[in-house]
Design a protein that fits this description.
The relative contact order is 0.02. It is built from 42 helices and no strands. Helices cover 70% and strands 0% of the residues. The longest helix is centred in the first third of the chain and has 14 residues. The chain starts with a helix and ends in an 11-residue tail after the last helix. Helix 13 packs antiparallel against helix 14. Among the domains are: 174 residues, no CATH class; 139 residues, Serine Threonine Protein Phosphatase 5, Tetratricopeptide repeat. The protein binds one DNA strand of 10 nucleotides through helix 19, helix 21, helix 23, helix 25 and helix 27. Keywords: Repeat.
DNA sequence: ATAGGGTTAG
């Protein structure tokens, strides 16, 4: 049975025997003999070769094979008719043994046939070596085609050493662009990047005999655009060099390839190289379209490199590259993200061609309008975003994104009514809401304490066929955690899993954080196991909330388990981790380990913060060593250069009052005033308790006035202290005035 | 071009 492709090959050989050969050969080939002559010669020889090789009739074959009219192409056709490389190789050997010396060039076409046949067979490395050795031994000059085929065969057999040897020993006349392209492509495919680049270098030399062509360009670009191999891929820095080399020979990447290359470089944060690449192509005369410039503009936008963005736009103008709607879209988006909304609106005018001829005459599309509407919403210019919506309706139809941006804008502005109105409006206009619309509204309602409405809306939308995704569940779960409705949060987590929604890390992290904060460590551990089952890992923040949770539950072994796990996972503890640990150890009175942690965090290059010192101060206070706490407090301002804040003062004032050192506590209050650190309700509660013990009633009135001045609202603790104290001393009138926000110390009792 | 998350001291 002959396979279909094989049949095609045979057919091709019968139809185009001569051209097929001549096309690839450097051996001269006279096309003058008529087809009938060709046919009869070939047919006769083929006939004679049908018998077993040891019965070949030399007397009959010799005049036919070695006559003056026998062309190289005839010999090739004859060889191909033998059907297998083994038979062809025998024929080669036969001709070599029988050819008159002046006819030795006739071996080239026969070898051509041998390798052609071989390349169609299953590659046998052993046989290939045998053939190759024979060629070298007999010094048969290779045709370009046989060189190409040989390269391909050696490549298929992964014989890189032989490949390079072959190329280096190749007769210069045979080294054509086509042959070299095959070699480069083969070397790339085999991962021998350095050798391929070396050959390419040779190809691109100024006086090269085999200059690169578009095929070379495609091979090199294909390699440059391939995703990076773990073994060896072309370094980003080399990309520019290679493209430059090719461009010297007029070989340029086409628009798509150039754009892809720029995208690739920008994705890897190599914007500078992308910039150089684009400018090199422009400078050496390659065609550059707006698409490629757009790719670079996007990269520059991500780098916030406004200067280069403007330079590129100027360059486009200079090179007469017409910006398209995408170019303007990138520009407008960048300006919006930089909150330069008025500049963005100016670009809209510019593209429309305000004032006639100076304009670009590029029609803004729905994306342009959406970007601007979103930009206006994000700077709280909601009215203008609504008027832009009306304006855009003259030019294009608003879509789902348009309304999503507006709905989000009004949700963020706490105008849920307007958000719902826009939702109704989009439905009326036949713009179909999607899951983003759903999530925007649900999150808006959750953030404004309307979880019930959010759930109701979610159910209604589900009935209409819009399913929630992990974003929906994150909003609801976080909202339930925030109101400490942990059971509902867990219920929605289960609902999410059973609804077939695939959770992402964010929904896991939100729930783990909520559960840890609520002290539900068993639930948190369960969610952690689910997270791991989904193939995710914990990050520092997630470990921190868990460690904090276990600390609060005094589950020391779980804390160390977490730390161990962090180390194994290569997640470095950060300042939060250390602060949490130091606070926990301090509270437990384990000052030794706490100091060790302090040392360790400094060794890791982490600088203790006001929170760290607060934890240490708190620990000393808790364990009755207020003197040591005060010592650290004083060091904070002097040597440590971490000024204490309200919380630190509160801890100390509270502790000093508890050890009856109200004088010192009061002096800290004065210190706060001097340093401009605002006391809060907790500060006043602490000091009021202290002076209550000391019965310093007039000091209380003074402090109550200061509390009014500082706009510190009394809380239930304040109310408890003052009610108990002032009612006992008959000063309830002053308390009433105080609650109404009046000063009390100067007013006299009626 | 649009939507969601989290930690430490009192």
């Amino acid at each position: 049975m002959v396979s279909a492709p094989r049949q095609l090959q045979l057919l091709r050989r019968h139809l185009l025997p001569c051209c097929h050969y001549c096309h690839f050969s450097t051996v001269p080939c006279d096309l003058s003999p008529s087809q009938t002559d060709d046919k009869s010669l070939v047919t006769q020889v083929v006939q004679l070769l049908q018998v077993p090789e040891n019965e070949w009739n030399t007397d009959q074959l010799r005049p036919l094979l070695f006559s003056a009219t026998t062309m190289p192409c005839h010999l090739l056709t004859i060889t191909l008719h033998l059907g297998s490389s083994s038979k062809a190789l025998n024929f080669l050997e036969y001709v070599r043994a029988n050819a008159p010396s002046e006819q030795s060039h006739c071996l080239s076409p026969i070898f051509h046939g041998v390798i052609e046949l071989f390349s169609e067979e299953t590659i046998s490395e052993y046989k290939l070596l045998e053939i190759y050795e024979r060629v070298k031994q007999w010094g048969i000059p290779l045709t370009s085609r046989s060189a190409t085929l040989l390269i391909q065969c050696l490549g298929a057999a992964k014989m890189v050493g032989e490949l390079l040897l072959l190329f280096n020993n190749l007769d210069p006349s045979v080294k054509s662009t086509r042959v070299v392209n095959t070699l480069i492509s083969t070397l790339f495919r085999l991962g021998h990047i350095d050798s391929a680049v070396q050959v390419l270098d040779e190809m691109c030399k100024p006086n090269t005999m085999f200059p690169p062509n578009n095929v070379t360009g495609d091979i090199v670009l294909g390699e440059l655009l391939k995703r990076d191999s773990p073994v060896r891929s072309i370094a980003e820095k080399e990309i520019g060099h290679l493209v430059r080399k090719l461009s010297r020979h007029g070989v340029f990447p086409d628009t798509i390839n150039l754009t892809n290359l720029i995208n690739k470089l920008c994705r890897k944060q190599k914007t500078k190289l992308a910039w150089d690449l684009l400018h090199d192509v422009m400078q050496s005369g390659g065609a550059v379209e707006a698409t490629s410039c757009n790719a670079l503009l996007t990269g520059l936008g991500k780098d916030r490199d406004v200067k280069r963005m403007n330079d590129l736009l100027a360059k486009m103008k200079e090179m007469e590259i017409k910006p398209n709607v995408i170019t303007f879209g990138i520009l407008i988006n960048h300006l919006c993200k930089s909150r330069r909304i008025d500049d963005a609106l100016k670009v809209l005018e510019e593209m429309r061609g305000k004032g006639g001829s100076s304009g670009m005459n590029v029609e803004p599309d729905v994306v342009i309008f959406n970007t601007l509407i979103d930009g206006l919403c994000k700077v709280w210019r909601h009215d203008e975003s609504l008027s832009l919506l009306e304006q855009m309706k003259n030019e294009c139809r608003p879509n789902t994104v348009t309304y999503n941006c507006l709905i989000d804008g009004f949700c963020k502005a706490s105008n849920l009514d307007k958000a719902h109105e826009l939702f109704d409006q989009m439905n009326k206009e036949g713009v179909i809401p999607n899951v983003v619309t759903l999530n925007t509204l649900i999150n808006g309602m959750c953030k404004h304490g309307r979880i019930g409405s959010a759930v109701e809306f979610f159910n209604e939308m589900q009935r209409k066929g819009i399913k929630g995704n992990s974003v929906t569940y994150t909003s609801l779960i976080s909202a339930f955690c925030n109101v400490n409705n942990i059971d509902k949060a867990m219920q929605y987590f289960d609902l999410m899993l059973s609804s077939g929604c695939s959770p992402d890390v964010i929904v896991f992290y939100s729930l783990i954080s909520g559960l840890s904060l609520a002290g539900r460590m068993d639930d948190a551990s369960f969610v952690v196991s689910k997270l791991k089952e989904s193939g995710f890992g914990l990050d520092v923040c997630c470990y921190n909330v868990l460690i904090s949770g276990f600390c609060k539950k005094k589950k020391l072994e779980r804390v160390y388990e977490m730390l161990q796990e962090m180390e194994e996972a290569g997640v470095k503890p950060d300042i939060f981790t250390y602060n949490t640990l130091i606070s926990f150890l301090g509270k437990n009175g384990d000052f030794k380990t706490a100091c060790e942690m302090l040392r360790k965090m400094r060794k890791e290059g982490l600088v203790p913060t006001v929170i760290t010192y607060g934890a240490v101060i708190h620990a000393y206070c808790l364990h009755g060593n207020v003197d040591e706490a005060m010592k650290i407090f004083r060091e904070m301002s002097s040597t440590l250069k971490v000024p204490p804040n309200t919380v630190i003062y509160n801890i100390l004032i509270d502790s000093l009052c508890k050890i009856k050192d109200v004088e010192c506590a009061l002096s800290l209050m004065d210190d706060m005033k001097v340093k401009g650190i605002k006391p809060n309700t907790a500060t006043y509660n602490a000091i009021l308790k202290g002076i209550q013990d000391k019965k310093m009633l007039y000091k209380a009135f003074e402090l109550m006035d200061r509390m009014v001045e500082d706009a510190c609202k009394p809380d239930y603790v304040t109310v408890d202290i003052l009610t108990e104290w002032l009612s006992a001393v008959g000063e309830m009138k002053k308390l009433e005035k105080f609650f109404q926000g009046y000063t009390v110390s100067s007013c006299t009792e009626e």
